[in-house]
Amino acid sequence: MPTPTPCHACPLRRLDLFVTIPDGEVDAIQDFKAGEMHVEAGTQILMEGTRNPQIYTVLRGMGLRYKTIEDGRRQVINFVFPGDFIGLQSTMMGEMKHSIEASTAMTLCVFERGEFWSFFRDHPERAFDITWLAAVQEHFLGEALTSVGQRNALERMAWAIAKIVLRAQALGLTAGNRCPLPYKQQDIADALGLSLVHTNKTLAKLRDRQLASWSNGAIQVHDMEGLVKLAKMDLHGPEPRPLI
Amino acid sequence: MPTPTPCHACPLRRLDLFVTIPDGEVDAIQDFKAGEMHVEAGTQILMEGTRNPQIYTVLRGMGLRYKTIEDGRRQVINFVFPGDFIGLQSTMMGEMKHSIEASTAMTLCVFERGEFWSFFRDHPERAFDITWLAAVQEHFLGEALTSVGQRNALERMAWAIAKIVLRAQALGLTAGNRCPLPYKQQDIADALGLSLVHTNKTLAKLRDRQLASWSNGAIQVHDMEGLVKLAKMDLHGPEPRPLI
DNA sequence: CGAGTATTTGATGCAGTTCAACGCTCGTGG
DNA sequence: CCACGAGCGTTGAACTGCATCAAATACTCG
To answer: How far is CA B13 from CA A197, B16, B23, B25, in A?
Structure first.
């Protein structure tokens, strides 16, 4: 059992991706933090329709947010990266409206839902940050909806890969132009609203065009500018955001 | 120029759809409110990429949230109804990430962005409610993404109509089974990721199946249960939510 | 090595797009 | 008062991007 990381030594907080806050405020988050949890790849962390007693921030590892329709179809809503705050929905709306699953082993900072309100009330700057995080998530979902609604398969794939790689870069997860991508093609298919077969063929097309290739759990981007241009998106990576 | 509605007499606040708050808290919202604004149908209220000095709550009228891609494609992200809080994104993230347009004449309660922080800090219950609203919006976008990504044209249309009508009912906007729908077919097409032509044909199919018919700016739902079943969604209408 | 899971490839079919044309309504101006 | 045009809705016909079906090839782990 490894010792929990103290918040002031948090490796994420050092990154430019996250806005810095005064030491005293880091202490407040540290007090709010109840512990750490380690889960194996494949674990269901939160389930749609349940009311969970804890909220988490991802410290390490990657996962998936998804919703299911009764007949089994599944929509992957977002990819979960370090720094993501998960379980907020259940805190605000009574129950989770989507599920979260670990795609790799993950380490999660655990917060008790029962202490959420006093933390929120007593630390208005952090409350503001939590609202900010909700706005960031809303923004992402708007972009994803636009992709799935308006772009064709090749554009969608280029968009998704560019988004993922830019996020991973901002988190320092990439080595050279190699970016870890611990998902299955079915996951990407479910994220983009494509069939598995067509997802595979679309990936082959990106490879043929020398834009990006994916194998052995890692993406190699050969031409980020080309990807971004193909997807008709702006190049700039993720904007700084708060970390709880 | 009509007199602004005092918040304690707000017709929306009386509805079951909105959670009730103590009178003192209504006063706080009243103090935060800077005035009212009336806009004509067709007005651009907020523009993607801009930084606007005001935040609004919709008092009357309906509109559209949408994003555009450079080449002109447009994704309608949500329909704007009375009680919706708009402009929060620009407050949290510096600029709007989507545009908002009035589809009918609208009345908006105006709040000054410059006073947002002190309101948020001094009224933690309202701050919580604002986060809640962001979570509601996030939830909706997750559902919309699932629809566009996983459902076929007929299911999507059934889903959209059911969603809109259930919302309108909760707001007391419907008369019998008639529900006002002040949008163009192109708007619905852009919301569902369908072409205009196919949207029209899909509406015709719903009419043939005696589920719902749309003409003269109003929807008649003949079989809500059938719509809900076709869309594979749950019947329950919108859950209570806060009103700022 | 064998069973189960994931990726790849080819062939066929259809849901939805695109193109084209027509009708309806309403506002505008001669 | 009617002619005209613009905007929106409707419908038919042809085309295509993606889904579906089917099967072979890799990869993983007991």
So the answer is: 50, 8, 11, 12
